[in-house]
Amino acid sequence: MTNKGDNMNTRKIALLILALGCIITACKKYPAEYKIKDMYSLMLKNPDKAVDFARTSAEFWTKTYDEKNGGFFTMVARNGDVLGNNYKSTLSQSRIMYAFSRAYMLTGDKKFLKYANYAEDFIRTKCYDKEHGGFYTTVDATGRNIDFTYDILLNQNNRQREKWSFMQHYALLGYSALVDATRNEKHFDFLIKSRALLDEKLYDNRKGYEGYFESADYDWRNPRGKGFTPTMDCVTTHGLSLYLLTNNEKYKERLISLADNVITHMYPTSKSRKIGYEEQYDSEWRPRDESFIFIGHMLKTAWCLQRANLISPKKEYSETAEKILHNINEKAWDNSNGGPYNFADSFEGVITNDNKNYWTLEQAITSGLINYYVTGNTLYLKMADEACGFFERYTIDKEYGDIFDEVKPDGKRLKTDEDEYKGSYWKSAYHSLETAYYLYLYGNLYFHKKDVSLFYNIEKSSKNREFPMNPVEEIQNLIISKVELNGKDYTDFDSKKRILRVPANTEGEFKVTYSMIK
After folding, report:
1. DSSP element (H, E) containing 89
2. Ramachandran angles phi, psi of 303, nearest 5°
3. Contact 87, 45 (CB under 8 A)
4. Tens of pLDDT, residue by residue, the chain (518 residues)
5. Is residue 21 a part of any domain in this protein?
6. DSSP string over 456-509
7. CA 377, CA 322: separation in Å to the nearest integer?
8. How far is CA 216 from CA 109, 124, 146, 219, 229, in A?
9. Residues 436, 53: contact at Cβ < 8 Å?
10. What is the CATH number of the domain that holds 322?
């Protein structure tokens, strides 16, 4: 016969065994060597520091404005000097528009909004193809189209001589951010019209083959190809933001269809590969069997799938995102210095460039944070932390500002000509500010569960307006907790639905504070 004390001891032992079992299970799921309190990244420890980084990076890019002709120069030296007989790419104008828009939203400094509007004016008046619609790829310093006379992309199959989806999607990136920051009706109409043209000219509606085409002729004839660029780059440039800006179901449906393209056509090719999946396909989604992959593209996919999952929950999105991150962590991660490598041979599973690239590091940060938020697996937090810590220590230029393009695996400078460029055909202000923007939002909301505040400069209108306010893809557990208009409390908003009501003839700077539901 047992007494009460024996029963208590037996219960304690049982609880101890259960606890040990939970610890063992957790160790299988979470990396035992990683402790959140010992985080590597200063900006992830305190995401408000990302605002300071945003400010200094945006200040750097003000030096690239062309006061004579408008727009921003593309080729820029490490110290901000303009290089040689410069030109202006649509890509750089849109990316700079994005950067200054986000810099304003983070800091409230209207100077940055002024520069964002400089970029908008140039891209709309000089970079838009008035004959065929869509956008030129490159113009000279004065804004004259030079797509057929300036061979800057000879190693890129002369893609300045066609309507390449990469350029057409990225042309809308800056508009998405500027419309978010201002809700300007003229900019919004231009964004909607340009998106409608892409849907008309570059989207394949054939049943079973749905998706954006990779490219088309200069006059939009002969659309062809599918792949990563027209799919995932669409999500991050305007595919997600248009839904968040409007709450319009048609944009949500297109966003989900892009995520489904990954699940149905793209990720299944990983079965025959050691790292990642096929990036290039023909128009019928047949893989081209290319071995080269960007590690950053794989990480970006893991980010976008979880974004789609938060908008329209589907277990395949989350499971596939996790599989991608585990694959990269196992096959393409620098366990000595932290962070992802650059390029790989997908079939062989071999890293072909082990340098650390600025935008690849960003994708590790964003995909790591959002996947940690959704799943609770600290492996993804570890990846975000290591990538962010490396980004802070070695990619940010402490002397001149902004970020380097690429560094060695241990963070040392490459000492090449390209190393001295801050702006080039492919690099501009975009990824610096996108990194800062999502570090601030994800770091506070998703990781620390702290409030964030963003600034919006809204002009008056003759009509009453209601604006969806959705800074991130978490639309179930986010509320507006406070609004100020020109420094004074403002109460005309729906907290749970995140709708800001602006009566006719009301204008000014709105400071909107967002909170996670406890």
Report:
1. strand 87-89
2. -70, -50
3. no
4. 334 344 444 444 433 433 333 333 333 344 555 666 678 899 999 999 999 999 999 999 999 999 999 999 999 999 999 987 789 999 999 999 999 999 999 999 999 999 999 999 999 999 999 999 999 999 999 999 999 886 654 445 567 789 999 999 999 999 999 999 999 999 999 999 999 999 999 999 999 999 999 999 999 999 999 999 999 999 999 999 999 999 999 999 999 999 999 999 999 999 999 999 999 999 999 999 999 999 999 999 999 999 999 999 999 999 999 999 999 999 999 999 999 999 999 999 999 999 999 999 999 999 999 999 999 999 999 999 999 999 999 999 999 999 999 999 999 999 776 667 899 989 999 999 999 999 999 999 999 999 999 999 999 999 999 999 999 999 999 999 999 999 999 999 999 999 999 999 999 999 999 999 97
5. no
6. EEE---SS-EEEE--SSS--SSEEEEEEEETTEE---EETTTTEEEE-TT--EE
7. 10
8. 40, 21, 18, 8, 14
9. yes
10. 1.50.10.10
In a domain, 278, yes or no: yes
Q: Which uninterrupted H or E stretch holds 436?
A: helix 430-441
Q: How large is the angle between the packed helices 315-331 and 358-375, nearest 10 degrees? A: 130
Whole-angstrom distance, CA of residue 88 vs CA of residue 325: 36
Tokens of 238: 């305007």
Of the candidates 274, 269, 281, 279, the residue with the CA atom closest to the CA atom of residue 300: 279
Asked, for residue 320, whether it belongs to a domain, the answer is: yes
Residue where one domain finishes, among candidates 450, 479, 502: 450
Residue 134 exposed, middle or buried by CB count within 10 Å (0-12, 13-18, 19+): buried
The DSSP string of 365-434 is HHHHHHHHHHH--HHHHHHHHHHHHHIIIIIB-TTTSSB-SEE-TTS-B--STGGGEEE-SS-SSHHHHH
Q: Which range marks the domain in which residue 325 is found?
A: 31-450
**Cβ contacts of 28 within 8 Å, gap of 6 or more:** none
74 found inside a domain: yes
Rounded to whole angstroms, how far apart are CA atoms 3 and 395?
A: 66
Per-residue tokens: 4: 């009460």
* Helix spans in 108-214 (H): 110-126, 165-170, 173-182, 185-201
State the Cα–Cα distance between residues 204 and 389, nearest whole angstrom. 41
Q: Measure the CA angle with vertex 361, ends 432 and 169; round to 5°.
A: 60
Model-level pTM? 0.92
Q: Report long-range pairs for 128-132 (Cβ below 8 Å, ≥24 apart).
A: 132/163, 132/218, 132/219, 132/220
